Amino acid sequence: MSTPKIHVDSLNVRFVNGKKVMHAVRDVSFSLGQEKLAIVGESGSGKSTVGRSLLKLHPASAQITAKAMQFGDVDLLGAGERAMQKIRGQRISMIMQDPKYSLNPVVKVGEQIAEAYLAHHKASRSEARERVLLMLEKVHIRDPKRVYNLYPHEVSGGMGQRIMIAMMVITNPEVIIADEPTSALDVSVRQQVLSVLEELVVEQQMGLIFVSHDLNLVRNYCDRVLVMYAGRVVESLAACDLQYAEHPYTRGLLAALPSMDNRRARLPVLQRDPLWLTC
């Protein structure tokens, strides 16, 4: 792998509430190059927390520590708020869960994308509009001029996802963090959205962190997989090698997946070992 876009070594995230401390992420380490890296696991495993930590999007009660959290030449751990404002959206973009609902309901979608562009580029309103129309075409939206003037409630779920992708990518970021961006979509629309992301990763030489709980999806879509359990990375392997996973947690997740080829009367229940929390 060439020089990584992001390098994380021993990331820990704790949330403090009075005297209570919740250790949400424990000693997570990984590097990201020009690739599609999946972070998978059950709800509450710490997947989204890792992604938000890279952009320092946690509340003030969060304590983020690491041996290293490097983005190119930037030390993310030591970067102040002013430095992070230049990185968020411009160099690292994040697509939140159910992204359509992140749109402002009373502002036309085209104007919202234009605002994202103007926040990081010196350009006129007309130049921003042309840039938005080109980006809407790039994410395979038909009749971009019509869609530009729609409000969020007037677009479908799949179109809303693509609009949010356009907003996140219009600034030409080096890295995209996609937090379950297709979880609410049907299979056909999901494939369209994934294809759009794939094209952008290749064309713009980006790195993609794809947060998901869908092992079948990441097996066929991503390059590498980090498997998280209770805030820890318990296994890291190539996506195409998921069937050869060694950790019992990963094998348990795979065994619980339904299969059209191997019908079972009952899916197995994942048996958790307390030792997974300490090793």
TrEMBL record:
Catalysed reactions listed for this entry: a dipeptide(out) + ATP + H2O = a dipeptide(in) + ADP + phosphate + H(+)
Keyword hit for Nuclease: no
CDD domains assigned: ABC_NikE_OppD_transporters
Residues covered by the ABC transporter domain: 8-255
UniProt enzyme class: translocase
Gene Ontology molecular functions: ATP binding
Lineage: superkingdom: Bacteria
Gene3D superfamilies: P-loop containing nucleotide triphosphate hydrolases
InterPro entries in UniProt: AAA+_ATPase, ABC_Ni/Peptide_Import, ABC_transporter-like_ATP-bd, P-loop_NTPase
Subcellular localization, as worded in the UniProt entry: Cell inner membrane
EC number of this enzyme: 7.4.2.9
Keywords: ATP-binding, Cell membrane, Membrane, Nucleotide-binding, Transport
Topology relative to the membrane: Peripheral membrane protein
Primary subcellular site in the record, as a coarse category: membrane
Family classification: Belongs to the ABC transporter superfamily.
Protein name listed in UniProt: ABC-type dipeptide transporter
Lineage: Bacteria, Pseudomonadati, Pseudomonadota, Gammaproteobacteria, Pseudomonadales
